[in-house]
User: Which sequence fits this backbone?
């Protein structure tokens, strides 16, 4: 740290009012950097912009017009009506299901993950090391590999094709347990816990009065990671659910795309679900993740650095 | 300072319990495995031991387009309407889902809308899903389906599905353009070849066909009776792309692709649609539903944005050496019933109604396979001003010309054709040069699917 501070202090002072931060690259290097960043922004931004503009156009306009041309807001309304008219408004139902499954799994997952990570980090008990290893091992098993045994298990207890068949397995979050363990093991001072114990706190009080309030960054990171994974969860609900009224948005959109001519021109149908409607449905899927990210990004950054340094 | 022993024990126990619970949730356990094998074997018994129950509800898997059809049945049959549960499903998932249901011994849908090539997949030994509809469909009804239309649904003499609609390949052409150029509509593939050569010479840039995606296999090789997938029996398939009936097709398409009269684009490629928009598409052998859903004549149609009486249709082309014209198909689906259904009476009645009733088939999107309903359906196409003349007589007459030797098999011939043959074309090679590799890959796929492959 001292070395870093010294280096920083000896760096030449940047002229006030300079608008282009060269960071020692020189004008040419800075220009190259700006051009590269702009190119990357265009490369990654253009598809998003196209997706945003797609619902403003008709199917014909999407192929005949310039890719980034704007159609009309009226067309967005029409696409929304077509989408919500599809199968008696089942798309809205899929959206509500997505919210229910996502927050159900999120809350249940956090309720399990945080105490488990806290317990592994602060308590010493027989089998603790084994549990940590098991957590690590389950972290590296692809979740899709577990879907079939999960289906058999939940069918056995007659929970398949119910919301629980999506919420319960999705609440299994070994990455969260490990992250919570690392966070509490590195960020929670032992002396603080010892002082609280002297003051008469039991383990539950220690967790709720000290562990939880000091883990806002961890909570933010876990919330974002869990929300994103559960919101985009496709394979688990695809296997578990057969009742189309129970689908979440990713599974429902698959049905929407394969059962219409939107992306399958060989599908002869009069249903007014075209590419613009599918693009609008795609936006419905993306926007909540973007909003949650905007809200939790500062937690994501600070939480992601958990355990990166040891003071 | 250590926490009190009781607290440590409690916290440790809760941690262990939570983690163990999660592990249990993640892993299959011994009883489940045994249950799996038990239910798999009970699935076998279900075919013969299922007790019919006329009061049992049935679940129907349909796409969104056919949802309205089942609702029409409910309206027409209010006494059983509440016994029918409609589920919107992606039928591509159907074979995989049946395997899951076979593992758990429950969950099968009772009626499913799917293409015969999907039905053949769920009829294999591992899935064993469909019931034989023969006892539920009278001969009088079966006889009124288009000739051969239920052949793809018939496996080992059992009727595993009933055809909903047909998508036979016919010859669509731009009548004003043909008249303007003074061309005669071909009736044989030889005349089609000659026309292609003349168009390439006199009107370069105009096209008479598309060979850019998997549909080309169904359009040209199916019509040529090429043995790509001819079943000899349930587990023996003839694949011989060196057969004279394949060679004649290959020589024709290579010649016309080389002179540009057959486009290397697929019919749904935007650049190909632009050819049609620009009136450069002289004719196109394509499915019966192209008239309404691809040529269209509506502002959002792919080919013709305006209806100006420019579209005509001719009968499928015949090879001179053949006794009659045979054609291929691009689509056409069917209804199948589960052998696990507890209410076969209602399930079968629904299937028969959906395939034959004018209330639905008379207004269905595509050509009904049941000919009396097709007559009612004819009004929906005859009124479209995009047609130069009523296309229905040709569509009806050609509905029985689909070559029945082209079988639904348990391997992906279309996808393999696209990757091998169309891929080779894209790289500048000829169709002929790609066929040996296509033969090799098809043979390997067929053998992997349990077929014995013969070439004679």
Assistant:
């Amino acid at each position: 740290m001292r070395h870093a501070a010294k280096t920083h202090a000896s760096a030449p002072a940047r002229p006030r009012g300079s608008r282009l931060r060269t960071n020692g690259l020189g004008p040419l290097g800075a220009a190259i950097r700006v051009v590269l960043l702009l190119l990357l922004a265009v490369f990654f931004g253009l598809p998003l912009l196209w997706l945003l503009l797609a619902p403003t156009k008709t199917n014909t306009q999407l192929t005949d017009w310039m890719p980034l041309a704007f159609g009309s807001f009226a067309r967005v309304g029409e696409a929304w009506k077509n989408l919500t008219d599809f199968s008696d408004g089942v798309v809205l139902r899929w959206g509500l299901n997505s919210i229910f499954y996502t927050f159900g799994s999120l809350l249940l997952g956090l309720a399990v993950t945080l105490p488990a990570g806290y317990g592994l980090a602060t308590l010493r008990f027989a089998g603790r090391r084994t549990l940590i290893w098991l957590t690590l091992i389950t972290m590296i098993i692809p979740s899709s590999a577990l879907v079939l045994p999960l289906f058999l298990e939940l069918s056995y207890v007659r929970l398949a094709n119910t919301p629980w068949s999506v919420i319960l397995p999705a609440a299994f979050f070994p990455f969260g347990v490990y992250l919570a363990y690392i966070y509490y093991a590195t960020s929670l001072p032992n002396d603080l816990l010892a002082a609280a114990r002297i003051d008469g706190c039991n383990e539950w009080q220690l967790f709720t009065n000290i562990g939880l309030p000091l883990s806002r960054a961890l909570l933010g990171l876990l919330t974002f990671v869990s929300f994103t994974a559960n919101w985009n969860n496709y394979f688990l609900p695809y296997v578990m659910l057969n009742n189309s009224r129970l689908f979440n948005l990713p599974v429902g959109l698959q049905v929407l795309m394969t059962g219409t001519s939107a992306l399958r021109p060989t599908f002869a149908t009069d249903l007014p679900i075209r590419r613009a409607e599918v693009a609008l449905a795609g936006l419905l899927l993306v926007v909540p993740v973007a909003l949650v990210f905007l809200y939790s990004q500062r937690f994501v950054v600070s939480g992601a650095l958990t355990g990166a340094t040891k003071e | 300072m250590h926490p009190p022993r009781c607290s440590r024990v409690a916290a440790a126990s809760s941690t262990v319990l939570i983690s163990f619970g999660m592990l249990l949730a993640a892993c299959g356990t011994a009883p489940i495995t045994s249950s799996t094998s038990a239910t798999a074997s009970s699935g076998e018994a279900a075919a013969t031991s299922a007790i019919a129950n006329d009061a049992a509800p049935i679940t129907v898997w349909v796409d969104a387009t056919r949802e309205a059809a089942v609702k029409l049945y409910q309206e027409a049959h209010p006494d059983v309407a509440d016994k029918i549960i409609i589920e919107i499903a992606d039928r591509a998932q159907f074979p995989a889902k049946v395997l899951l249901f076979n593992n758990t011994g429950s969950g099968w849908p009772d009626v499913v809308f799917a293409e015969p090539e999907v039905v053949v997949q769920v009829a294999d030994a591992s899935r064993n899903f469909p019931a034989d509809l023969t006892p539920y469909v009278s001969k009088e009804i079966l006889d009124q389906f288009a000739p051969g239309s239920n052949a793809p649904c018939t496996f080992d003499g059992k009727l595993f599905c009933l055809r909903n609609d047909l998508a036979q390949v016919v010859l669509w052409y731009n009548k004003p353009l043909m008249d303007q150029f003074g061309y005669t509509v071909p009736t044989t593939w030889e005349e089609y070849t000659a026309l292609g050569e003349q168009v390439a010479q006199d009107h370069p840039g105009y096209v008479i066909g598309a060979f850019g995606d998997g549909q080309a296999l169904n359009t040209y090789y199916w019509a040529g009776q090429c043995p790509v997938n001819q079943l000899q029996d349930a587990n023996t398939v003839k694949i011989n792309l060196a057969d004279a009936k394949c060679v004649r097709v290959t020589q024709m398409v290579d010649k016309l692709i080389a002179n540009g009269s057959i486009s290397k684009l697929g019919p749904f490629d935007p650049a190909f649609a632009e050819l049609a928009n620009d009136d450069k598409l002289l004719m196109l052998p394509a499915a019966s539903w192209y008239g309404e859903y691809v040529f269209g004549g509506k502002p959002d149609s792919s080919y013709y944005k305006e209806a100006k009486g420019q579209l005509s249709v001719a009968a499928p082309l015949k090879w001179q050496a053949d006794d009659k014209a045979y054609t291929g198909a691009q689509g056409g689906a069917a209804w199948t019933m589960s052998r696990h259904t507890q209410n076969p009476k209602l399930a079968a009645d629904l299937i028969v109604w959906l395939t034959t009733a004018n209330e639905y088939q008379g207004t269905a999107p595509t050509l009904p396979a049941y000919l009396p309903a097709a007559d009612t359906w004819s009004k929906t196409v005859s009124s479209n001003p995009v047609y130069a003349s009523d296309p229905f007589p040709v569509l009806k007459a050609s509905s029985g010309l689909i070559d029945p030797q082209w079988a639904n098999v348990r391997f992906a011939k279309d996808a393999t054709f696209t990757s091998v043959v169309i891929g080779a074309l894209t790289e500048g090679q000829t169709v002929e040069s790609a066929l040996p590799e296509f033969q090799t890959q098809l043979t390997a796929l067929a053998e992997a699917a349990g077929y014995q492959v013969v070439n004679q």
